[in-house]
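Q: Sequence in, structure out?
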Amino acid sequence: MSESRNLFRKITQRFQVILASLLASLLLSPTLTPVLGQETAPFQLVEATIEDIHNAIKTDQITCQALVQLYINRAKAYNGVCTQLITEDGASIAPARGVVSAGAPLEFPTETVAASSLFPDFDEYVGTPLDFGRMEATLSDPSVQQQYGMRVGIPNAGQLNALETLNIRGERSVTCKGAFDAHPSTGPLPAGAPEVCETFRRRPDALERAAELDAQYGNDPDLENLPLYCIPFSYKNWYDAKDIRGTGGNDVNFAMDVPPTDSVPVAQVREKGAIVYAIATASNNRISLSPTPAGVPPAKVFSPAGPIPGDRRPTTSISTWGGQPCNPYDTERETRGTSSGSGVSVGANLVVCSICEQTFASCQGPAARNNIVNFLTTKGVNSDGGILARKMDDRAGIHCRTVQDTVRVLDAIKGYTSREYFTAIPKSLIPEEPYTSFVIDEDDLEGQAKPLEGMRIGIVREYMIKHSRNDVAISDQIDQEIKTILRDRLGAELVESVDPLYPDDPAVPNMKYTFQDAFAEILPMNVPEYFSRTTSSGDLEFAVPGFDVTTKDYLVQLAMGQAPLSDSVNLRRITTGFDNTGRGHFNTAKYLAERGDARVFDWASWVANEKPVSDSDRRSAENAVDVQDLRPTRGLDMFKMQTVVRLVIQKVMYENDIDAFVNPENTLPHRKIGGASEPTVDDRSAVSCCGRFTAFVGMPQIIVPAGYNQIVYEPGFALSADRTRYNYVSGTQRSLLPRPMSISMMLWSGPGEEPVLIKIASAYEAATKHRVPPPDFGPLPEEQ
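A: Exactly. Output:
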């Protein structure tokens, strides 16, 4: 990005601050009191809650249509491109334009970053050619361009690229683009308009829907039946909406790029009065993939890091259609997880709430990195209904800025639906009372000094181990938050689990029955094959000196407490090694058949009409075209393991009288977009403390802001001895992040324990008020 453009942005931002201050003074002037009401505070869009918006509408401070327009203004101001390309030589490129968003085409930076500035000894690298950054026309719309290949985040970009497509007439579809989406009142469509556009244009866009609500309800909305009235939502691009382009974030040229129906969570929030406002940018939904055969490397790779420079997908959230979102607290750094646009859009006040999706850490990561709340329920309490990822270890999650708002959304979408068989759960798992009745707010804290008294919370030390220098600061900080707030301030009793890599804390009693005890008791009879797992070298993964862990004799002795359990059997590893049943192939085929597009109707036609994110994705997509046999060829049965691990968790809870567990969401600082990641150590992934864990078991969890960290040991790249690859290496030099970055606490429990988690999370939030909005994305002048 040019210096002149940065300077212009800084001048503009200063001018906006001055205008905002002047307008705020006018709004607070006594002469406006009769208009605003004696006891009604002026409406502020930044950090507005669902209740704030409803109060503003009811007191005539704002209309629904005006509210939606303010969010469109924010998208126009802040939703531009925030990344620049990594090229071989760092040379400037020609100007390029992307899709129209909020009324104007996206503009891409012309400056690039030389690969040698990231990768040491780059002139000596002789490995697989890299997928250098470049601008190319998209397949779906050749008149617009997009970034491809490697890229980095731009420091102080002032832009976020969090929303892929806005629900604005003329730009919400490529098939029905521009005049092909003209309102029916304007007359016939122009010549050449696809036939499907005549039906599509009858669907109101976000502003028109808001106007309809204003006309019907005015300042007296039916909040009992429409609890999400006029609340602008985004949703991960892995969900469908019947009025916005939906391709799972992929550059796939459907005959009609807008799906015929809403995914279930989108339909549910729409029915409860929400404005389906935007698709959030996220990684491509790529489920029907098969590994490239051994010995056939892709022609190019995204990142040269890793033990084998092939078959690697980007480690940051990149969409071939929507691009890369950036963190609102530091645009040079990651947003984390495939649902990153959902997290960024909520964190930067581009929307109020968002529907995310998680299999590994796709919801919790963006919540933690963007300083917001994430609620994932017991599997089946609310519907999943994503387009390709509907399976037992996948869930639709809720992103909002407060616990109260996430719970309001949950109350609106909970319960059984015939479109989602995973919601066929015991009715007793959903309480008769609304979930909002379990929220503890600031007023409750004033009346009850220790609202968590009588509750016992288990600290999960397995997720707090200091594997590297980078793990230390956040692990210690969350430890203090648990003790000083949950225990000392709010009254909860604490116990801790035991891990040989974490020192015993004399200030916290140990669990009398540990996770290791439960593994030793439950695994031997129910999953004896677990102990026959081998490493890449063929050695037994869970070997114990002096015992043959594959035998009945050892397993019986283990279950009786007469033989030791390998330290490698722990919570960090228990969610690895599952079967490779072709669930993704099934879901993809079913979705495309149900969608019924004239051009893209099966996986072969998808591949023929797609521009993939990388060469490895292209090859793996092609390999999946002829897959018919969905049976697993390796791994542990996932359904069996789900039952077993649930038993492990519940047994530990019963034996220790535990109500909920707590641990950091991640102990690692924010990495740079396109930069090196902290190496995986002892099954601690750089992606999350415990990705896939609660999703796989189907247990509820809440992520809540827990403060800020500024300490970092920046990891780097190191060229291998044979010069064919780069590996991640841990940093050794302590430094400070340019700005304090958010950290988060993860609370989780057994199936059906949502009320317990809501009580703990809301009490913690009320006691700490950790969240502060990102300063670079504050109010626009017209919002004051």
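Residues 442-514+636-776 form one domain.
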